[in-house]
Amino acid sequence: MAAPATGAMAFLKRLRNKPEAKKSDDGREATGARATAGAQQMKMLRRLPKILRFIPGTAQDVRAYFLTLQYWLAGSQENIANMVHFLVDRYAQGTRKNLRGIAKTHEPVEYPEIGVYHPKMAHASAVGKMAREVAALPTFATTGKRGTVGLLLMRSYVLAGNADHYNGVITALEARGLRVIPAFATGLDQRPAIDAFFYEGGRPSIDALVSLTGFSLVGGPAYNDAKAAEDILAKLDVPYLAVHPVEFQTLDQWGGSQRGLLPVESTIMVAIPELDGATGSMVFGGRGSAQHIACTGCAHACKFENISGSHDMHTCIERADTLAARVGKLVDLRRSQRADRKVAAVVFNFPPNAGATGTAAFLSVFESLFNVMKAMQREGYTIEVPANVDDLRERIITGNAARFGAMANVHTRISADDHVRREKHLKEIEAQWGPAPGKQQSDGSSIFVLGERFGNVFVGIQPAFGYEGDPMRLLFEKGFAPTHAFSAFYRWLREDFGANAVLHFGTHGALEFMPGKQSGMSATCWPDRLIGDLPNLYLYASNNPSEGTIAKRRAAATLISYLTPPVAQAGLYKGLVDLKDMLERYRGLEPEAQAERDELSVMIQAQAAELDLAVADPLWGTDSEARVAKLNDDVLEVEYTLIP
After folding, report:
1. Fold held by 114-333
2. What is the pLDDT of residue 32?
3. What average pLDDT does range 320-330 have in this prediction?
4. What is the rounded distance in angstroms from the CA atom of residue 158 to the CA atom of residue 556?
5. Among 279, 272, 207, which Cα is nearest to 236's?
6. CB-CB neighbours of 356 under 10 Å
7. Residues 6+ apart with CB under 8 A from 179
8. CA 265/CA 254 separation, integer angstroms
């Protein structure tokens, strides 16, 4: 056991304040108690140096420690400079002792522990670009009529004046007509900032929550309280995106990398926030290169030539604009009337020409889609629900397919001229697949969009991706591009149909496997190009989290899990049932009935050959006993195999 504290330490322990945590109605610690405990700790940190000033001896070193903490935790340039002056003035020894007293040391400048920030902050109550209330934000920043976005920032970057990456996101959101409340909290628990600035009258005042911190909502790089995050996010009930800068590499390194994020970045900034329920992970900025190397992540080719070091943070202009566009679409979706929303449901067809249209792993697609359509109708969506499942399937798969020589109903055609005029990445596609409109899903003069519209809901069939015989070429062939039809399909959903959201129906399609970085997409990555700013919901089998994660990180998907069916014995059907009957008759014959056994073994061999379980020639002959026994084992294995 440690010896009892004496002297200055005993005095400090007596000063320690432990407020009793308040409890909410359900027994959990209330949010106000969290803020009070943190505020009490900071209040005590400010009080201690004033008290210790009057205690001689080693207590002055304790006082110096607490003063240093004050400077460091409020780490503006002014406070860091004064911290160095203070430490030099107190502890410089030897040849450096003459440095004492050269510079005047000022008391630590106090900044809000939770507050709001804006690069154009000019309110009388502001401390620098920071303030303690939303009312202090610039007037133009709080008048956005499109909706309100709550931004979570790292206080340390704001204090250090190194917040250009935040400024770019704020500017991009405001340029799209959104009201922005950029807030911060001390440390790595963002709940006090959420409680203080994202509620009005006890109700959420924001339409979307975006974390720019690169960390989990409650915790940091080495800690995550997913349950606490779940509680506060459920209370807010708004879309939550956790986006991030590149911290462990420069922007030009990220832009030129086929991998994208480093493993440590993927873990800390993507995987851990996903445990909170965060979606939409993407890069929005990062560190510039002191060598002024052009970033190849988009056409802007930024070099950040105004910097001399590689520690300053910068906005990726294109990524910040894409983020703002996606957030804007989520806000629009949330604020719109259900009757006005247009939804695209995308079903898959792999392999094509094999009766696989509308199939997915462990999901009865058309039955499930029919039930979803009926539920949408009940909830107020403008939708024309077919009479039954068979009618739905018939209208999508058959329809006018024969007239156009297509694999399914042709809802509309995109002319080659229109495609050439509107396709931004035409050269890359033509380099892979030849001149527009290409040979896939085309009649030589136009591109087919397969599917059928049911009111404000369009059920479309995702086009083939071109390498059906070798799907891994999607990921591993450098320079690969989707077909003309694939790119045109998603452009049609975004721009012509005007979808407010897309629902990929089942596990899985090809969008998320298109070429590009493994994670941390850039404007050169095909999944990012294809989905654009369209909110992407994805029905994914719960037993396949690995590929579901690929859809989340590469195609900005929000996953909706469905359970796999319960397992049951496969059983037998048709010819297998007849074969089993023959085998049981064979096994039931008396040993002396050899003639009947020989006759039956010939019939068994013929039936097994029809089922590809045996060869028709040569006849088994004297080897029939062993062959029949082996065949019986094979049939039993099929019958009792567990399948979903």
Report:
1. Rossmann fold (3.40.50)
2. 46
3. 97
4. 28
5. 207
6. 13
7. 141, 142, 143, 144, 145, 146, 147, 148, 149
8. 11
Rounded to whole angstroms, the Cα distance separating 463 from 490 reads 10
The single-letter code of the amino acid at 153 is L
Element (H, E) at 610: helix 594-610
> Is residue 335 within 8 Å of residue 324, measured between CB atoms?
no
The three-state secondary structure class of 519 is: strand
Flag whether the pTM goes above 0.90: no
For the chain, percent of residues with pLDDT exceeding 70: 89
At 103-121, the pLDDT tens digits run: 888 888 888 889 999 999 9
Looking at the DSSP assignment, which residues form a beta bridge with residue 180? 149
Which parts of 155-225 are beta strand (E)? 179-185, 199-200, 203-204, 208-211, 219-220, 223-224
Token pair 């207590």 is found at 59
Closest CA to 486 of 505, 510, 452, 503: 510
Q: At what angle do helices 484-491 and 426-433 cross, to 10 degrees?
A: 150
Average pLDDT over residues 216-226: 84
Tell me how many degrees the CA angle 18-21-26 measures, rounded to the nearest 5: 165
Three-state secondary-structure class, residue 114: strand
| 277 burial via Cβ count (<10 Å: 0-12, 13-18, 19+) | middle
Tokens of 473: 């070429």
The C-alpha atoms of residue 350 and residue 360 are separated, in whole angstroms, by 9
**Longest Cα pair distance anywhere in the chain, in angstroms?**
117
Q: Please state the domain extents for the chain.
A: 7-99, 114-333, 340-562, 569-643
Report angle CA 397, 398, 402 to the nearest 5 degrees.
Answer: 125
pLDDT digits 0-9 by tens, 354-401:
678 888 889 999 999 999 999 999 999 999 999 999 999 999 999 999
Cα-flanking dihedrals φ and ψ of residue 30, to 5°?
A: -75, 155
Q: Which residue has the tokens 């628990």?
A: 189
Question: Which is nearest to 503 in space by CA: 572, 433, 442, 551?
Answer: 551
The secondary structure of 26-40 as a DSSP string is TSSBPHHHHHHHHHH
The C-alpha torsion from 414 through 420 and 423 to 429, rounded to 10°, is 100
- pLDDT by residue (tens digit) across 60-102? 888 888 888 888 888 888 888 889 988 998 888 888 888 888 8
Spatial CB neighbours of 540, under 8 Å, sequence gap ≥ 6: 506, 507, 508, 547, 548, 551, 557, 559, 560, 561, 562
pLDDT of residue 269: 94
